[in-house]
Amino acid sequence: MKKALIPFLMVVVLALIPYVGVHYAGLGYLFGIVLPYSAMTILLCGFIFRMADWLRRPVPFCIPTTCGQEQSLDWIKQDKLESPSNFLYAAARVLSEVFFFRSLFRNTRSELHKGSNLTYGSNKWLWLGGLAFHWSLLVIVLRHARFFFIMVPDSLQYLDDADRFLDVTLPAFYMTDALVLAALTFLVLRRIRDAKMRVISLPTDFFPLFLIMAIALVGISMRYVTKVDVMPVKVLMLNLLNFSFEPPGEIGTLFYVHLFLICVLAIYFPFSKLMHMGGIFLSPTRNQCNNSRAKRHSNPWNSPIKFRTYAEYEDDYRDKMKKAKLPVEKQ
Amino acid sequence: MSKYASKVSELKKEFDEKPSILKGNYLDKEWWDIPVEFREGNWCFPAKPEVLESLGFANPRKWAATDQDWKLPGGWEKTISEGLKSRLKKYRSLKLFLDTCVRCGACADKCHFFLGTGDPKNMPVVRAELLRSVYRNDFPLAEKILKGFSGSRKLTPEVIKEWHMYFNQCTECRRCSVFCPFGIDTAEITMLARELLNLIGVNNNWILEPVSNCNRTGNHLGIEPHTFVQNIESLVEDIEDLTGVTVEPTFNRKGAEVLFITPSGDVFGDPGVYTMMGYLLLFHHIGLDYTISTYASEGGNFGMFTSNDMMKKLNAKMYHEAKRLGVKWILGGECGHMWRVVHQYMDTMNGPADFLEQPVSPITGTKFTNAASTKMVHIAEFTADLIHHKKLKLDPTRNDHLRTTFHDSCNIARGMGMFDEPRYVLQNVCKSFHEMPENTIREQTFCCGSGSGLNTEEYMDIRMRGGLPRANAVKHVKEKHQVNSLVTICAIDRASLPTLMNYWVPGVSVYGLHELVGNALVMEGEKKRTEDLRENPMAGFEDREKGDD
Residue A95's domain spans which residues? Predict the structure, then answer.
């Protein structure tokens, strides 16, 4: 599996760069200050640019994919979420995709049996794995916000406590750490094990998976194994947030690996398929109302065309039309 | 069976024995390394030079997909690359769908062509990658730097051949888009890819000849006005023979309340004509003040399978004629892609139709607020409303010889969202109705395998393969509930499903919904009805039929 191996090796090499850079070359300033600022700038500007680049393109037609009964006669029950007739329903439809992966929930697995019989079984693993991965990642990112506050806000503390509900290790174990790794492993394995997934996967599909996996693994080992002192980390983060260029203090090298990989992810983000994070909100087949017969959708470039008019038609067929006793405009 | 398709037994053997990616025992090979092979039954004849000339389309010439050299016009790479660039500017959908796919694989086994061919390039995600790989090569800078990493490739004649093959193994049915977490719609990609291919003269005669006909005569079949009238008049005679009732359709009549437009297949083709007879009986039954136009005599729109401009051009006739005739609103017959165009494109392209009025049923007084702007009502909505208000005298036992199931047409299902109206009508005009399995109906319905202009003889192999999932579901209800009638509301279905049923599920006939309505309608002054509109004996009259013979 070259397609999986190359991105795996790329991540390994990437992880070694800050290790060598900080541990041997003493480039703490580069990896702790310069790179994070640059990466965040690229992420923010890139993300905004990509969104704007999509948004500036027109949506010429009203093309929702209708997955339920449209609004029609009073006594026919409309499926408001799958065939939304107003903005509110359409918004609910998009949000149900964003938060609950509604369309993936529908997923089936088709199988071809002897005698050319096809069956379609429910298949929710991708939905479950995807949901576990994205939600865990969100909780983990939110948990990390504590590094950016002098006083940790209550809401973050609650989240943190909830995540440490299973108090089994020292320091207390975060459930999302395990979940995100399990989900990532699943997402990688399915790309390797399933024949269809092997064909459709590209190195760019494996790369972010391995990258995020590496970030999580380094993060976990900092917390549970090498036990990196978090105080200088917090100082560095607070400084960064205050746009200060003060050199970082003594921090374990592993932290630089963690930070560097996050920077790589941030830089990679706007140029890659990871932009699906923004794209999901814009998908015209999901965010438009299915009301195109009730309300006219206008197309900014509605190209002018010349069609064959009735008059031209009648000119060609007048005699035949008269013989067939069809009314004509001109005799 | 057609010489363009293998025998059922051979195909079944292939499904059982040949390793395939669908069964998971496929030898790994990257999709871009699999060569494109044109053979009998998997390509449509290209448009005749005179058809292209009549439309003013590019590169008229004689060629075949099996030729080594496709005689692409000079500078074709530039035409494609600039064509793509300009479409990316015009359609957010295209840009977004090329950018956001994460290749999660949810769509992979949802396409009927993939299920019927096991061809990896028929997975919707790969179908889009065919275009995406070229797009990546041309566009985002970073992807370019990481060439090879991101699966990009150069535009070559081989790529064009691949596009031609696989963008014609997509019926724009949108099933994959139901399952996609980002709603990526392969139909959108296919439509624009076919538009690009048309720019360099890579095309399909079975699409472009109807387009040219429709432009000239008003309908796909190229029926001239007098013949069009004659055809309907012969149906009027058939109705008289069968029911003793004389229905009186009018043509091109100014001042009628309603303009009725249906696919020309209903006027000309078997079994569409029986559906037409059903409409005529219905309109007579309720005394509708309607007219049929010989100029706007086509509901369908093969322009949709050609280009945005062509779709608009052919569709323009509907409003143009409605305005000329001074009707109040338009009633549309049973058709799939016609309704995708009417529902999602017509008003935007050729509206606003402010010379028409918001449709109101003259019989029930129901205001069709859902068609307030487009002013065009679907016949199933119209009839469902009539039945709901008990305005029709129906005898459903007259369809007792039929045990039915309902096939949702792709465009009506996923491009309009009409599911319950036709079912309501069907259940009121016949007593035996059984749904196919839930993953094969409604929004998950399977295409007939011949939609989007692929319903041509020389494409039989692909059509029969693509139709397998639909046929398989019909077979299920045939075995379980002795279903013998597949009811549908799409003209392409009516034309293509009989062949498909003959191939995979012999013994199942295909009906239009309004044919069954026509059977069940108790007409004023009718004679004793013993035969349905096809002159098949109704239940209880089988013996008499034998006696007559």
Answer: 2-306
